[in-house]
Amino acid sequence: MPGIASPIRAFAKFLERKQLADTVYQLKFEMISPVEIDFEPGQYIAIEIDIKTRRQYSISNSPIKSKNVFEIVIEIKPNGVGVNYLMNLKPGDEIKFIGQIGLFILPEDLAENLFFISTGTGLAPLKSMIETLILTEQCKHHKIYVYFGTRYTGDIFYEDLFDNYFSQVLINDYKIFLSRANMPGTIDGYVTQFIEMHDQSTLDTGQFFICGNGAMIKDVERELLERNISKDSIFYEKFY
């Protein structure tokens, strides 16, 4: 696809780890070779755990901020080989990866209304997209709606960041859906309920960027198609 750089084999240095929620961590890396990663918002990397094992992680920061330093977000439960590898990294350790990968990116022609729907760490690539729209001031020309779904209050992360974007009117709506807990300021239920919050004309002039649980992605897509939304307006990473 024109405009997307081909994946490369690369090395990066682990810088720091930050806990975002009960079982969610953000990891920061600095490029070693090459010195930059030429990624588009929404793309991911495949970290080589060993000679036979790779694990995929979306880049969560915007390339507008930096192409020399990048961040990923991981869920440490369940505890797998990729999680063990990443959680045992020490500052200065080197990783090998293949990147940038994926066609889940912002299209050149953006609709009037942009919906970003996620569960769990699926919020990571959407954060990269949203921050890019803000930093390039495209947010002034489009309405941005951010909807995040999870089970418990301890699973919530980046809340302060998106609350700040909302308070500055950089995004038009931000809501959290909790399926197994109650918390003031959140909505009881599932993130798919965002569809019911909008009239048909708003949905008709929208594009939908979805990332997270595979069942959620299928449910959102099905409900949007039932509302006669074009499949061309629905975006998600195809490995789901």
The share of residues in helices is 10-25%
| Arrangement of strands in the largest sheet | 4-3-6-1-2-5
- Strand residue percentage: 25-35%
Order of helices and strands: EEEEEHEEHEHEEHEHE
If you average the pLDDT, what whole number results? 95
Task: Walk me through the topology.
Elements lengths: L7 E14 L2 E10 L10 E7 L2 E6 L10 E7 L5 H7 L6 E8 L11 E7 L3 H13 L7 E8 L8 H9 L5 E6 L8 E2 L11 H5 L1 E6 L2 H13 L7 E2 L5
Parallel strand pairs: 7-8, 7-11, 8-9, 9-10, 11-12
Antiparallel strand pairs: 1-2, 1-6, 2-5, 3-4, 3-6
Verbal overview:
By secondary structure, this protein is α/β, with parallel strands linked by helices. It has 5 helices and 12 strands. Strands 4-3-6-1-2-5 form a 6-stranded antiparallel sheet, with helices on one face. Strand 3 (44-50) and strand 4 (53-58) form a beta hairpin.
Short description:
The protein contains five helices and twelve strands. The chain is an alpha/beta fold and 240 residues long. The model has no long low-confidence stretch (mean pLDDT 95).
Key phrases:
240 residues, alpha/beta, six-stranded antiparallel sheet
